[in-house]
Amino acid sequence: MAKKVGGHSLIESAEALITSREETRAGFIAMALEKNYMAVPYVEQAIALKTLASSAESPLALLDMEMLRAGLLTASGLSEKSLNYLTEDDKTIAIKGLIENFLEPAGTEFVDELVYRFLLTKGDALGGKARNLAGTLGERKFLRTLISVFNIAGISYRWKDGDSNTWLEKPDDDAGIEKRIKALYWKGEHDRLLVLNVNVPMVNKNVDVIVLDAKEEEYLKSSKDSIIYQAERYVALGEMKGGIDPAGADEHWKTANSALNRIRTGFNSLGFSPQLFFIGAAIEAAMAQEIYQQLQNENLHQAANLTKDAQLTAICGWLAQI
Q1: Once rounded to an integer, what is the mean pLDDT over residues 277-283?
Q2: Residue 138 host element (H or E)
Q3: Is 241 left (phi over 0), alpha (psi -120 to 50) or beta?
Q4: Which end of the chain is more exposed for a tag (fewer CB within 10 A), N or C?
Q5: Is 19 helix (H, G, I), strand (E, B) or coil?
Q6: CA torsion through residues 274, 145, 281, 134, sign
Q7: C-alpha distances out from residue 83 to 43, 70, 89, 122, Å
Q8: Rounded CA gap, 262 and 227, in Å?
Q9: Helices (H) and strands (E) in the chain, counts
Q10: How far is residue 152 from each of residues 147, 149, 316, measured CA to CA in Å?
Q11: pLDDT tens for residues 172-200?
């Protein structure tokens, strides 16, 4: 029998939560495309480096080309963080090492060797960014869906811009807004404030999504007066796992389930029971059974598979009306 919460028939069975092979494939492709978009600046920089370096008559001549210094340091294998700990002399030594050990042995192909080594270092930087990509894409899809629900339902909202750290009115053109949102405020029957990635004092751990009974001006992140210290103001808390790899699904669920248990225990000890929900992209059969069982016994109030549009829309509709 379908479980009905907040007027929505969400999950009819454990099987309904399982991520299909097609959904897994689509998730991997989306990740690959996003990585390629992220790589565009590095590729363009490599093209510029090759063009400028091609005017050098020899590898040693590169040392006198000040415009290339940053690129040479990258090709030397130095990260941007490491440069903060080096003097200009140290940096010059690193560039000379690159020239003597790798560029000069490459002969007339030294410019290509330079570009390859530049891209190797940039590849490490890209890999670091990509490690958080699954969570970022999942967060964006969730926010995009929630905003779409607001728009269809005619719900006005204000949003906190992560770039400027300011609250802004709902825009006429909201294309790409999900990449910048850090918090949302809307008013239905009650004031509702949704905030992402918050260290919740009641559990002393980061929680992916919280919904508070509050106005946006009441959220003072750095102040002890902030409503995040008021347990009675929490309406819902949720964990979200955007990783699509089936091999990591069980581990993601164990992490999320542990977090949800900490939330449950922390708030129950204070006499409060806010709504709890889980959204995941990679959901395998065993964890689907556990999630469904928690929905049935109401340890978990809502759940959705991030790859299934109907489920994601339903849980966002529930949040919009909570």
Answers
A1: 96
A2: helix 133-153
A3: beta
A4: N
A5: coil
A6: negative
A7: 22, 10, 11, 14
A8: 19
A9: 9, 10
A10: 9, 5, 12
A11: 898 899 999 999 999 988 999 999 999 99
Judged by DSSP in three states, 213 sits in: coil
Cα(136)–Cα(132) distance, integer angstroms: 6
Cβ-defined contacts of 51-60 (< 8 Å, 24+): 53/111, 53/114, 53/115, 54/111, 56/111, 58/110, 59/99, 59/103, 59/104, 59/106, 59/110, 60/99, 60/104
pTM given for the model: 0.84
Report angle CA 256, 275, 140 to the nearest 5 degrees. Answer: 55
What is the greatest pairwise CA distance in the chain?
76
Cα dihedral: 212, 215, 221, 225 (round 10): -90
pLDDT higher than 50, residue 3: no
Two structure tokens written together for 13: 């069975």
- C-alpha 48/C-alpha 308 separation (Å) is 42
Sign of CA pseudo-dihedral 96, 102, 105, 106: negative
Residue 217 has a pLDDT of 86
Q: What's the CA gap between 75 and 62, in Å, rounded?
A: 12
pLDDT in tens, 107-131: 999 999 999 999 999 998 888 777 7
CA torsion 249→254→256→259, rounded to 10°?
-170
Reply yes or no on whether the pLDDT at 2 is more than 50. no
Q: Nearest CA to 38 among 134, 173, 163, 144?
A: 134
Report how far residue 258's alpha carbon sits from residue 255's, in angstroms, rounded to the nearest whole number: 5
Tell me how far apart the alpha carbons of residues 251 and 183 are, in angstroms, rounded to a whole number. 28
Q: Do residues 318 and 192 make contact, with C-beta atoms less than 8 angstroms apart?
A: no
In whole angstroms, what is the distance from residue 24 CA to residue 244 CA?
6
CA 110 – CA 126 distance, rounded (Å): 24
Q: What are phi and psi of 182, to 5 degrees?
A: -115, -20
Measured CA to CA, the distance from residue 131 to residue 289 in angstroms comes to: 28
